[in-house]
Amino acid sequence: MILNRNGAIVGLAISLLLTVTSQSQAVVPVFDPANYAQNVLTQANTLKTTINQANQIANQIREIQMQVQSLRNIPRGLWGQIQSDLAQLQAIVQRSQGISYANVNLAADFAKSYPGFRASTDYTAAYRQWTQKALGGIKTSLEDAGLQSRQLQSEDAVMQALQAMSDGASGHMQALQVGNMIAIQQVQQLQKLRQLQMAQIQAEAGFLAMQQQSQSGQYAALKLWIESAGDPAFKF
Q1: Backbone angles phi, psi at 108, to 5 degrees
Q2: Judging by beta carbons within 10 Å of its beta carbon (0-12, 13-18, 19+), is residue 4 exposed, middle or buried?
Q3: Is the pLDDT of residue 116 over 50?
Q4: Please, what's the b/e burial string for 33-63 (b: 16 or more CB within 10 A of its CB; e: otherwise)?
Q5: Is the pTM for the entire model greater than 0.70?
Q6: How far apart are CA 84 and CA 90, in angstroms?
Q7: Which end of the chain is least crowded, N or C, by CB within 10 Å?
Q8: How many CB atoms lie within 10 A of CB 230?
Q9: Which pLDDT score is estimated for 9?
Q10: Residue 209's CB: how many other CB atoms inside 10 A?
């Protein structure tokens, strides 16, 4: 009986020992350095790939922003008032007392005012008319220059505005638009310069026509007097 009891106790002890041993083996982890190193490298490579992708996306976003910035345009251009300015200059020419280049009957009016080599029946009246036309052309030229001088103020304001727009251009499109407006402003300046040159030509032509007609009329009158002197019916 005692042997059986002792055997049972020994068997129970062995069973408990085996149970504790198996539980200890299950709780204590096994560290694998090679596997741990591989996992760290894999995670590092994954993080590096993610960072590269994020940088690429950020660069693409910046490129898109730059493209959008470059495509922004100026809602309303600045062109000046060239048509109004030229209309005012044209009005000065049209009311000129001289022979105007804007006259639709220029050839006929010029031939009537300056007939050339022909003696005038009333030289004083004819000379007065030539003088008025010549002075009228000179006056028109001066009025044209004076008006353009006053217009320079508005033109300067336009150029200052264009300069500010150029300094504040935020993209290629806006820079191109400002450059285009400056180029058109230069064309407008050239048009006004041509207008001033035409007024100057008109004044010079009127003055030269007066001188030439006066000289031609005097020679024509002298010729008529010489021819009349040879006439037997002519009496001194």
Answers
A1: -70, -45
A2: exposed
A3: yes
A4: eeeeeeeeeeeeeeeeeeeeeeeeeeeeeee
A5: no
A6: 10
A7: C
A8: 7
A9: 59
A10: 20
The secondary structure of residue 26, as a DSSP letter, is H
For the chain, the average pLDDT equals 77
Backbone dihedral angles phi then psi of residue 24, each to the nearest 5 degrees: -65, -40
Structure-token match 């022909």, residue found: 118
Distances (CA, A) of 195 to 90, 93, 115, 190: 8, 10, 28, 9
Nearest CA to 126 out of 36, 205, 204, 218 is that of: 218
Distance (Å, rounded) from C-alpha 175 to C-alpha 226? 76
171-206 per-position pLDDT tens digit: 677 778 888 888 888 888 888 888 888 888 888 888
Residue type, 97: Q
